[in-house]
């Protein structure tokens, strides 16, 4: 499959900043397995850049190549203006936070954090001061003499972050740093990480399988699948303008209705839906790229963009029967059977929550421009 | 990987012992073993202790309490010099086993997992062969008509007359290193295997090259295994019996052989008992001091220097 990439157009001044990390057609093969297949990215100064994808998509391998733990089979890695493709990990000016924190269990918190400074030959007095400062930044002041094993997961996480940041690297790499924390702590740490990243203005590359986490923190996101790039873009763009069906499915919930393009004009496509036989007209703007007549497509719509029994000026309506209602308080997830296909509507909890029962006949509506028309993959 | 699992299990058992985590259930579990050891070992040691203060021993109608055996031990320089020789041989054996065993354990740790179980098997395979057979093999290698002298004198002609390799303290040390090497390798391997690989990567990420990452991260975390291996090899070679009697000859004997002679050949159970008691007390003291110095319990807990 050839990925279609939608690079973010330079829209803000942020994009004029220089590239700090540049990957140029990186390929990594392990024996017969191609883990990373032609990844090219430019991460700009101060940017929070996320790499997301399902497990085994090559995101961690990509990060490990940037850190220098793996050598790319082909392609080049630049750190600022220097080609670091063959530079060993310990000579790269890069900080990294590992998934399991990787704290040194035989060293105290202070010794852990001071390690990088010690390697740089920073005198002890200055070392102590900088360790104390960075521990304050991560909200763990005065913990120098504690053993990392005595700390909670969230605290160990902060120590690992402090240890990576204290040497003031030009890039910070984070490998699924929140995946070992419980849900509540994870959400707190998102804000915390973002706060620290903002405060230091450090270029950050963040790897996660959690697309929500990536969207909440990132300036830009790269979606990887089977080692290949699917899309790069800002969170909003990735969510509302996925460039292909994989990205649409991976980033958030989506309803995909299969169909065929029966005709097209200069301004719109007409799609015949497979399940209902309905023909719907969609403006060309909802398709990421030019589609041909007879092409197999999916008409996608986000559950949150869908409504029930609403009169819309420019909308699409389908008839269905309610299968199940999952009331969540502020919202209600309502599962609807549309001619044998399940369709999820995320309705307002107050207006829709108490109004419907399973078995009710309803009309599903969404605004035409909320449709995402993608070629079937 | 059943062998590896076995080792891990042994390691866990050992760490529980070293940390003195004696829960009520744990006590119940070790009760049968404790009982057996108390009766068998305690009983026999008690008899040895008793005999060391009796003259004549074993117990008879004329037996009286005496310190004569202990006096004899300290007044006869021979026994002290054998004890000192044994100590030196044990230290050399331990040092050599550590020097040979650490790299082997390290290699086992980092090697491709496909071959790991085979190499671990090879490591303990010698245990399946009787120690007397294995030690006799060294006589065939080191003897005046042995392999080495055959190569040096008969084949290459580097020297004219065979070297006296057998019946020396070096021969004993070589034999002991061979027999006890696995007891050094296995605990170190277990310790190294427990070192978090990403910790080593973290050190490299922070600017440590391979050598520094090893000395700062890997090596300190392997110290519990080193301590266990050193202790095991030292204690076992200090009290060795078979190897020195086969490779040391008449001139080079160790304290274990003296004790054996006292009981078996000379029927001096009293003096034999006294030497045993002194030897055991010395070993216990050394182990205690070693433990206090190295602090096996503390190794995981507290940090090194920074």
Automatic annotation (TrEMBL), chain A:
Name this polypeptide is given: Molybdate/tungstate import ATP-binding protein WtpC
Biological classification of the source: Archaea, Methanobacteriati, Methanobacteriota, Stenosarchaea group, Halobacteria
Annotated function: Part of the ABC transporter complex XacGHIJK involved in the uptake of xylose and arabinose. Responsible for energy coupling to the transport system.
NCBIfam families attached to this UniProt entry: potA
SUPFAM superfamilies: MOP-like, P-loop containing nucleoside triphosphate hydrolases
Species the sequence originates in: Halopenitus persicus
Compartments (UniProt record): Cell membrane
Domain ABC transporter: 21-251
Record family assignment: Belongs to the ABC transporter superfamily. Sulfate/tungstate importer (TC 3.A.1.6) family. Belongs to the ABC transporter superfamily. Carbohydrate uptake transporter-1 (CUT1) (TC 3.A.1.1) family.
Top-level EC class: translocase
Description of how the protein assembles with itself and partners: The complex is composed of two ATP-binding proteins (XacJ and XacK), two transmembrane proteins (XacH and XacI) and a solute-binding protein (XacG). The complex is composed of two ATP-binding proteins (WtpC), two transmembrane proteins (WtpB) and a solute-binding protein (WtpA).
Catalytic activity reported: L-arabinose(out) + ATP + H2O = L-arabinose(in) + ADP + phosphate + H(+); tungstate(in) + ATP + H2O = tungstate(out) + ADP + phosphate + H(+); D-xylose(out) + ATP + H2O = D-xylose(in) + ADP + phosphate + H(+)
PROSITE patterns: ABC_TRANSPORTER_1 (PS00211), ABC_TRANSPORTER_2 (PS50893)
Record membrane topology: Peripheral membrane protein
EC id: 7.3.2.6, 7.5.2.13
GO molecular function terms listed in the Swiss-Prot or TrEMBL record: ABC-type polyamine transporter activity; ABC-type tungstate transporter activity; ATP binding; ATP hydrolysis activity
Keywords attached to this entry: ATP-binding, Cell membrane, Membrane, Molybdenum, Nucleotide-binding, Translocase, Transport
One GO location term (cellular component): ATP-binding cassette (ABC) transporter complex
Record flagged with keyword Translocase: yes
Automatic annotation (TrEMBL), chain B:
Domain ABC transmembrane type-1: 83-290
A cellular-component GO term for this protein: plasma membrane
Organism of this sequence: Halopenitus persicus
Transmembrane residue ranges: 30-54, 78-105, 117-134, 140-159, 171-190, 226-247, 268-290
Localization (cell): Cell membrane
Domain of life the protein comes from: Archaea
Family membership: Belongs to the binding-protein-dependent transport system permease family. CysTW subfamily.
The entry's keywords: Cell membrane, Membrane, Transmembrane, Transmembrane helix, Transport
Primary location: membrane
PANTHER family: INNER MEMBRANE ABC TRANSPORTER PERMEASE PROTEIN YDCU-RELATED, INNER MEMBRANE ABC TRANSPORTER PERMEASE PROTEIN YDCU-RELATED-RELATED
GO biological process: transmembrane transport
Keyword Kinase: no
Bilayer disposition of the protein: Multi-pass membrane protein
Protein name (Swiss-Prot/TrEMBL): Putative spermidine/putrescine transport system permease protein/spermidine/putrescine transport system permease protein
């Amino acid at each position: 499959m050839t990925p279609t990439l939608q690079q973010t157009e330079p829209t803000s001044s942020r994009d004029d900043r220089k590239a700090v990390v540049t990957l140029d057609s990186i390929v990594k093969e392990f024996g017969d397995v191609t883990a990373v297949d032609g990844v090219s990215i430019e991460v700009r100064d101060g940017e929070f850049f996320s790499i997301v994808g399902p497990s085994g998509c090559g995101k961690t391998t990509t990060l490990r190549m940037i850190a220098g733990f793996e050598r790319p089979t082909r392609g080049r890695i630049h750190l600022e203006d220097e080609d670091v493709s063959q530079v060993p990990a310990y000579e790269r000016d890069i900080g990294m936070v590992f998934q399991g924190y990787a704290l040194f269990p035989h060293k105290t918190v202070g010794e852990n954090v001071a390690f990088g400074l010690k390697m740089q030959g920073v005198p002890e007095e200055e070392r102590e001061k900088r360790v104390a400062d960075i521990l304050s930044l991560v909200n763990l002041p005065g913990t120098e003499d504690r053993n990392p094993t005595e700390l909670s997961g969230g605290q160990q996480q902060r120590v690992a972050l402090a240890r990576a940041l204290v040497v003031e690297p030009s890039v910070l790499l984070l490998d699924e740093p929140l995946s070992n924390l419980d849900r509540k702590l994870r959400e707190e740490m998102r804000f915390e990480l973002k706060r620290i990243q903002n405060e230091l203005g450090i270029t950050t590359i963040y790897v996660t399988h959690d697309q929500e986490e990536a969207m909440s923190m990132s300036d830009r996101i790269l979606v990887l699948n089977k080692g290949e790039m699917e899309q790069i873009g800002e969170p909003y763009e990735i969510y509302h303008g996925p460039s292909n069906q994989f990205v649409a499915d991976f980033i958030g919930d989506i309803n995909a209705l299969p169909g065929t393009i029966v005709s097209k004009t200069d301004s719109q496509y007409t799609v015949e839906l497979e399940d209902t036989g309905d023909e719907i007209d969609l403006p060309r703007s909802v398709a990421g790229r030019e589609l041909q007549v007879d092409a197999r497509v999916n008409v996608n719509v986000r559950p949150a963009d869908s409504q029930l029994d609403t009169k819309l000026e420019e909308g699409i309506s389908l008839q269905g029967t309610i299968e199940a209602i999952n009331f969540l308080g502020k919202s209600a997830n309502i599962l609807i059977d549309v001619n044998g296909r399940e369709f999820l509507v995320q309705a307002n909890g107050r207006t829709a929550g108490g109004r419907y029962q399973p078995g009710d006949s309803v009309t599903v509506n969404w605004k035409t421009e909320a449709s995402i028309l993608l070629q079937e993959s | 990987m059943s062998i590896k699992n076995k080792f891990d299990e042994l390691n866990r058992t050992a760490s529980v012992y070293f940390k003195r985590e004696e829960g009520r259930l744990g006590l119940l579990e070790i009760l049968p073993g404790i009982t057996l050891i108390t009766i068998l070992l305690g009983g026999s040691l008690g008899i040895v202790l008793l005999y060391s203060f009796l003259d004549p021993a074993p117990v008879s109608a004329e037996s009286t309490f005496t310190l004569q055996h202990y006096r004899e031990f300290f007044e006869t320089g021979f026994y002290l010099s054998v004890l000192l020789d044994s100590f030196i041989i044990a230290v050399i054996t331990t040092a050599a086993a550590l020097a040979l065993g650490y790299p082997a354990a390290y290699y086992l740790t980092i090697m491709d997992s496909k071959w790991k179980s085979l190499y671990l098997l090879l490591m303990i395979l010698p245990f399946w062969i009787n120690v007397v057979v294995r030690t006799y093999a060294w006589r065939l290698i080191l003897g005046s008509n042995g392999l080495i002298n055959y190569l040096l004198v008969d084949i290459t002609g580097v020297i004219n007359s065979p070297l006296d390799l057998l019946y020396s303290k070096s021969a004993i040390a070589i034999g002991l290193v061979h027999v006890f090497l696995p007891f050094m390798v296995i605990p170190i391997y277990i310790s190294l295997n427990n070192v978090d690989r990403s910790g080593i990567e973290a050190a490299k990420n922070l600017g440590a090259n391979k050598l520094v990452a090893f000395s700062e991260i890997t090596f300190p975390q392997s110290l519990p295994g080193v301590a266990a291996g050193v202790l095991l090899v030292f204690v076992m070679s200090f009290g060795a019996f078979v190897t020195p009697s086969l490779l040391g000859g008449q001139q080079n004997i160790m304290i274990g052989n003296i004790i054996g002679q006292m009981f078996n050949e000379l029927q001096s159970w009293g003096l034999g008992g006294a030497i045993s008691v002194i030897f055991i007390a010395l070993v216990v003291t050394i182990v205690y001091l070693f433990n206090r110095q190295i602090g096996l319990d503390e190794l995981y807990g507290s940090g090194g220097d920074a």
